[in-house]
Inverse folding.
């Protein structure tokens, strides 16, 4: 029988669940069972539980057949728990290092109390850690259970009434039949009854839980809904418990006051009870006050305050709008013509048949947005599409595209009127999101390097980034596209907002599964690759610690040493807008509009830290990692993967740390031997799970056609990547 049962229910929390579970399993105190309850979560939470269970025998996973809510999910874990003490941990929170040992020591020191209360700190998305405001009470009242009197218990009941800052003796819980009710505020009819019924309570003056404060989402109680009416049933349960136990009747006046304070707080909050339902809420609150008022006690006023009324809400919103509009007013004064035209366009109806696309900071159509637009033309041909392309690049746009230049009259008309906006980066800060518009962020790679808010710790990469502006931009996203679960977990954490993640695969990668042999041959002919030659694609990523493009690999020298059997396709990173060297065995493809066509034409990839390796893995062709500056890159930019580790699922193939090693890998055959093939297969299994050739169709059907159920995925084993010429 373990000392602790830690029960962790999870629903749509995949970005934080791994950190939560690790915080329990990595504790120095090992006598613990972790019960993960997958509350029919539609994301990867259930899989994450299973992965931890495979690695650690202390983990037990319950997969519920349907979503039942937090309270009943906890009950499911409670039914199978075997530990001496129960700890309920929310799936986006964490235990601090050494906390289980501290709890165990305190339980021993306080004679095995029914409940042990410990402290917590709020951890904010911007890095702040703020300890519980009632922490002083724990220090003052920490004592043995038999010294914990009525006054101390009352202080305890004034703290935040949550279940996750306590350890409960399982025998005490079982003997009293405590369970969680359904609905919102499920902690209320658990914490009050358990705290009042406990014969002994211990205190631990130590931060045990880091209570995550997400920037957006994560707190179901922060949503506007009639579900907040559940609070009345929850307090009915509290008073029913007290009424059934005469020894607790003296607590009714205290509980009555606490209930009224709680109901006022809920009803007055601007983002809880819907505005049209607030009058009804306060009427029920007044009835609850009367129903639970102790005999002979004076009534406590429960009425809707001005700020919670419709007029008060209008005043609040007008004030907020006035504050938010100040920068816009200044810009309008500075640019009256553009500002006036834009405001006029925004007053016109949204055009349901207009979609605006952009890619790579307004370069020519490409990447995921281009693949989505092509499928959109096929499935919804009546839709009009406009691409935002820099004026100097519009001559390079193939025929058939409608384009507007950034900042032009046509641009402002399009972004002001379009129902749909699609980009693999972000639209300008000045292109404010219009209510009713739909923004799809497709991204343009799987992150090896640190991204988003994680760049705050890497000044070489993030020094010029305005993180407040970044947050404003991501607040416009309605959808965030992901090609694999690895990316989803990172995007949701480093870009915290209320968008919906679409784990559909990358549309730009569809061609790697759908292309046939003739398309591959045509791509090679276009590039002038000699018949029978082995084409190596070298496409390095940008370096934040350098200005301008300086190739790390002397491709001409490498090609000469490899001989006529090989040809190198050299593509400089798009951000440099510069060409690379060319020779008889080196073809510069820096200006080629489609990296996908280059990949199809090649036989192998020489990668550094570019996300291209994840896309290329769909082709199931050799990948060689050339990492001569790995240490510098890792320190200046930060990375999520150790590409040089040699671990399956992390390293995509053979690794070279110098030009000499790279030459040996290519000459000696290590680039395509059994070891590199095994690594590539594991890498492909991990990162190509959704790229089955139907990603673009999934996106169009969900975002543009409103279909609710995405197309099923073709299993990896059943996919047939585009063939090579060999």
């Amino acid at each position: 029988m373990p000392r602790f049962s830690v029960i962790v229910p999870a629903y749509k929390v995949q970005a934080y669940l791994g950190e939560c579970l690790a915080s329990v399993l990595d504790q120095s105190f090992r006598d613990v069972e972790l019960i993960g309850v997958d509350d029919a979560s539609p994301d990867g939470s259930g899989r994450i539980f299973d992965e931890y269970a495979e690695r650690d025998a202390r983990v037990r996973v319950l997969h519920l057949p349907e979503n039942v809510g937090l309270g009943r999910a906890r009950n499911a874990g409670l039914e199978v728990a075997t530990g001496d003490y129960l700890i309920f941990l929310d799936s986006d929170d964490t235990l601090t290092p050494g906390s289980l040992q501290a709890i165990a020591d305190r339980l021993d020191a306080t004679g095995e109390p029914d409940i042990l209360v410990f402290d917590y700190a709020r951890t904010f998305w911007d890095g702040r850690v703020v300890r519980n405001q009632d922490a002083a009470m724990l220090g003052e009242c920490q004592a043995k259970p038999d010294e914990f009197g009525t006054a101390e218990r009352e202080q305890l009941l004034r703290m935040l009434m949550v279940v996750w800052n306590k350890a409960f003796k399982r025998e005490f819980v079982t003997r009293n039949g405590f369970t969680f009710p359904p609905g919102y505020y499920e902690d209320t009819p658990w914490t009050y009854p358990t705290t009042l019924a406990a014969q002994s309570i211990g205190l631990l003056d130590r931060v045990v839980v880091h209570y995550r404060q997400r920037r957006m989402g994560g707190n179901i109680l922060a949503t506007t809904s009639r579900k907040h009416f559940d609070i009345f049933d929850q307090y009915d349960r509290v008073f029913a418990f007290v009424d059934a136990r005469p020894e607790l009747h003296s607590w009714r006046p205290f509980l009555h006051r606490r209930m009224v304070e709680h109901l006022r707080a809920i009803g007055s909050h601007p983002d809880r009870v819907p505005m049209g339902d607030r009058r009804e809420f306060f009427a029920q609150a007044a009835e609850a006050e009367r129903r639970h008022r102790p005999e002979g006690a004076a009534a406590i006023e429960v009425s809707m305050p001005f700020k919670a009324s419709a007029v008060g809400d209008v005043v609040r919103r007008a004030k907020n709008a006035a504050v938010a509009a100040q920068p816009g007013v200044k810009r309008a004064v500075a640019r009256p013509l553009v500002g006036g035209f834009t405001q006029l366009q925004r007053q016109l109806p949204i055009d349901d048949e207009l979609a605006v696309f952009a890619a790579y900071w307004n370069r020519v159509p490409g990447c995921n947005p281009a693949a989505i637009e092509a499928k959109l033309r096929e499935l919804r041909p009546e839709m009009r599409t406009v691409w935002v392309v820099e004026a100097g690049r519009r001559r390079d746009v193939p025929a058939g595209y409608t384009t507007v230049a950034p900042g032009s009259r046509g641009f402002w008309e399009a972004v002001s009127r379009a129902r749909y906006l699609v980009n693999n980066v972000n639209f300008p800060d000045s292109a404010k999101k219009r209510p009713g518009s739909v923004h799809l962020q497709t991204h343009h790679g799987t992150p090896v390097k640190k991204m988003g808010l994680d760049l705050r710790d890497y000044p070489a990469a993030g020094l010029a980034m305005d993180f407040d502006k970044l947050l404003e931009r991501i607040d416009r996203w309605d959808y965030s596209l992901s090609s694999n679960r690895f990316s989803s977990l990172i995007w949701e954490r480093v870009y915290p907002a209320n968008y919906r993640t679409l784990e559909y695969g990358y549309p730009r990668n569809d061609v790697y599964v759908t292309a046939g042999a003739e398309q591959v041959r045509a791509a090679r002919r276009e590039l002038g690759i000699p018949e029978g030659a082995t084409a190596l694609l070298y496409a390095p990523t940008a370096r934040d610690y350098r200005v301008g493009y300086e190739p790390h690999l002397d491709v001409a020298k490498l090609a000469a040493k490899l001989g006529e059997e090989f040809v190198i396709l050299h593509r400089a990173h798009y951000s440099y807008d510069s060409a690379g060297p060319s020779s008889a065995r080196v073809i510069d493809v820096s200006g080629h509009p489609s990296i996908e066509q280059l990949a199809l034409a090649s036989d192998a990839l020489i990668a550094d830290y570019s996300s291209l390796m994840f896309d290329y893995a769909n082709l199931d062709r050799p990948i060689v990692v050339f990492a001569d500056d790995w240490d510098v890159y890792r320190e200046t930019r930060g990375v999520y993967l150790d590409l040089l580790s040699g671990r399956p699922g992390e390293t995509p193939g053979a690794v070279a740390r110098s030009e000499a090693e790279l030459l040996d890998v290519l000459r000696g055959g290590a680039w395509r031997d059994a070891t590199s093939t095994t690594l590539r297969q594991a890498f492909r299994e991990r990162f190509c799970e959704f790229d089955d050739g139907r990603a673009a169709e999934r996106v169009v059907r969900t975002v543009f056609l409103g279909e609710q159920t995405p197309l099923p995925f073709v299993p990896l084993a059943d996919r047939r990547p585009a063939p090579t010429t060999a």
Summary: The two ends are 61 Å apart (CA to CA). Residues 4-219 form a domain with the Spore Coat Polysaccharide Biosynthesis Protein SpsA; Chain A fold (CATH 3.90.550.10). Confidence is low (pLDDT under 50) at residues 327-335. The chain has 27 helices and 22 strands.
